[in-house]
Write a structure and sequence with these properties.
The chain has 23 helices and 14 strands. The chain is globular and about 85 Å long. By secondary structure, it is of the alpha/beta class. Helix 7 (about 145-155) packs across helix 14, helix 11 crosses helix 14 (about 325-340) and helix 19 runs antiparallel to helix 20. It has helices at about 5-15, 30, 35-50, 90-100, 115, 135-140, 145-155, 155-165, 180-185, 210-215, 215-230, 245-260, 290-300, 325-340, 340-345, 380-385, 420-425, 445-455, 465-480, 485-500, 505-510, 515-520, 525; strands at about 20-25, 55-60, 70-75, 80-85, 110, 195-200, 235-240, 275-280, 320-325, 355-360, 370-375, 395-400, 405-410, 435-440. It has four domains: about 5-110, Glutaredoxin, CATH 3.40.30.10; about 145-345, 3-Layer(aba) Sandwich (Rossmann fold), CATH 3.40.50.11540; about 355-435, Ubiquitin-like (UB roll) (Roll), CATH 3.10.20.600; about 445-525, Up-down Bundle (de novo design (two linked rop proteins)), CATH 1.20.1440.230.
Length: about 550
């Protein structure tokens, strides 16, 4: 495989393009509503109406507007776009007839809706455009050009430098500078190095990585290959949770296709570079999203965290230097190499470059996946793109960062969405979950929900997390049952501080965040549930003595 071969495939695909393309979303969300039958019916109807020569029915990945699905997009050769929403299998005849000017009562969407118009797509640029099970489709939109450029025009150190200059930070939640991590692995001594993609996405309400893997698997593989070249690795692992069967299936297809074209394996682009990728399937443990627990799981051991140092960059899989990034981080790599570090750094803020994919969900009118520049005001996401709360309700809070994040009250909706600003409010960027709550939401119940999640998902290795999450959950439950006093609330805050500062890994260290943020901004909701304290402030068991007026 050479550059000319890539270009030939791309030209062949473009030449075969038909006048009209019916893009049928076949991501997990739409598939659950019979999108596969919709595509089958559209194929049959195009044939029945004699339009095979001018109409292509294409399977595509997630279009983003998940709450309106199943979705069918229409691309005309004159540049016009149409969007059909809430499509049913029996709508196929009307949709195909509409292409010839026939009547169609299928619900129409607006391709220029603010939900779409205000997005800036880098990671999701191909989502809803290419067939995720066709490597030729990916090559036709420039796929694997960046890998060729890296292998033939850049030295490994120059690739690391480009990623560093781009300002890309890890999209898994911590926001660690990607170039710095790559540079550490590249400098680490060792004949064997590994690249690991963390696809163990488990936050409630989050499905960004799943969508990328289902919609554009080759983008992630290309990013991993570039990373392997940069750090000197020859073996990669994709760690994907078992609850994502469609993503796993499409990754398996993508790996097989890339090997067949010589884009994975040995002698890639007729260079000495060798890179193979294997899939490892997680067993449903949220803690395996923590990198040391993930590595243990890849090695076939129980997925529990270990103390650091040593860090994976120096001693990871089987004691070898290991680079671990999440799905979205790898999905940014090829665009950065292809377009340049300065191009990528032009998006976002001074300290938070590029774009971020969010799963916008909860009490929100327009829900789905969005990709926006870092630094965009939270209000613009929630009110303009998301359409605000349904049924005329008021937005009360937005929770970011999943169980590790915090709840941001409505008065702070003008906060820019970047790492530093969210941290100041007691939340985090996280992997990209964004759950909206309206004025009917009980914030103490929200804190209990996330604490219950962390309690259930604790691996039990360290006492602060194992025991502390249980005690905090019990106290939250006691408060909700109106059986708690001010001393219980004080004890809850003490436990939050203890668990946050003494737990072994990120799960325990961040488990108190939803509780702490709701205590910070919605303390009155806690206090309204408390009972009068009949004992002294020290809780010594003696009833309070009646005060005697002087």
């Amino acid at each position: 495989m050479q550059l000319d071969d890539l270009n030939a495939i791309a030209e062949k695909e473009k030449a075969a393009a038909k006048k009209i393309c019916l893009r049928t979303c076949m991501s997990a969300g739409c598939m659950s509503s019979r999108a596969d039958v919709i595509k089958k019916n559209l194929d049959a109807e195009v044939k029945a109406q004699g339009m095979e020569a001018e109409v292509e029915v294409r399977r595509v990945g997630c279009m983003g507007f998940c709450g309106q699905g199943p979705l069918v997009g229409v691309d005309h050769d004159d540049g016009r776009e149409e969007l059909f929403e809430f499509v049913k299998p029996e709508d196929a005849p009307a949709i195909v007839s509409s292409l010839k000017g026939g009547p169609c009562d299928v619900h129409r969407g607006d391709p220029k809706h603010p939900f779409f118009a205000k997005q800036v797509k880098i990671v999701r640029a191909n989502g809803g455009i290419v067939d995720p099970e066709s490597i030729e489709d990916y090559i036709a939109v420039g796929g694997y050009q960046a890998l060729h450029q890296a292998l033939t025009e850049l030295k490994p150190a120059e690739v690391v430098e480009a990623i560093t200059k781009s300002g890309l930070r890890g999209r898994g939640g911590a926001g660690y500078p990607t170039g710095l991590k790559w540079g550490t692995v590249a400098k680490s001594a060792g004949n064997k190095k590994y690249v690991v993609c963390n696809g163990d996405e488990g936050d409630p309400g989050a499905f960004m990585d799943r969508s990328v893997l289902e919609s554009d698997p080759h983008l992630v593989l290309e990013g991993m290959a570039i990373a392997a070249y940069a750090v000197g690795a020859d073996q990669g692992f994709l760690y994907v949770r078992a609850e994502y069967p469609l993503a796993i299936s499409r990754l398996q297809i993508a790996i097989k296709q890339a090997k067949q074209l010589g884009l994975l394996g040995g002698g890639i682009f007729e260079t000495p570079f060798i890179f193979n990728v294997d899939i490892r399937i997680g067993a449903g443990a949220f803690v395996c999203g923590e990198e040391t627990a993930l590595m243990a799981s890849v090695e076939g051991k129980r997925g529990t965290p270990r103390p650091r140092p040593p860090f994976p960059a120096e001693s990871g899989l089987w004691g070898c230097p290991t680079l671990i990034n999440n799905v979205e981080t790898f999905a940014n790599i090829a665009p950065i190499i292809a377009n340049g570090a300065e191009w990528y750094a032009s998006f976002g803020t001074e300290k938070s470059k590029g774009t971020k994919v969010f799963a916008l969900t909860g009490k929100i009118t327009n829900n789905g996946l969005i990709e926006v520049p870092m630094g965009i005001p939270l209000r613009q996401i929630v009110e303009e793109m998301g359409g605000g709360a349904p049924d005329g309700r008021q937005i009360k809070s937005v929770q970011t960062g999943g169980p590790s994040g915090g709840c941001i009250p409505a008065q702070h909706l003008d906060t820019p969405v970047d790492y530093e600003s969210l941290t100041k409010l007691g939340s985090i960027m996280g992997s990209g979950g964004m759950v909206v709550m309206d004025d009917t939401t009980n914030m103490v119940e929200i804190a209990k929900f996330y604490m219950e999640f962390c309690m259930d998902e604790s691996c039990g290795k360290c006492i602060p997390c194992r025991a502390g999450t249980v005690q905090m959950h019990n106290l939250l439950d006691k408060i909700l049952k109106r059986k708690a006093t001010a001393r219980d609330l004080a004890k809850l805050e003490e436990l939050c501080d203890m668990v946050k500062n003494t737990s072994l890994c990120g799960l325990g260290q961040t488990a108190p965040n939803p509780t702490l943020s709701t205590l910070r901004f919605f303390r009155n909701e806690y206090e309204q549930l408390l009972q009068p304290d009949k004992f002294g402030p020290r809780g010594n068991g003696e009833p309070k003595k009646a005060s005697v007026a002087a």
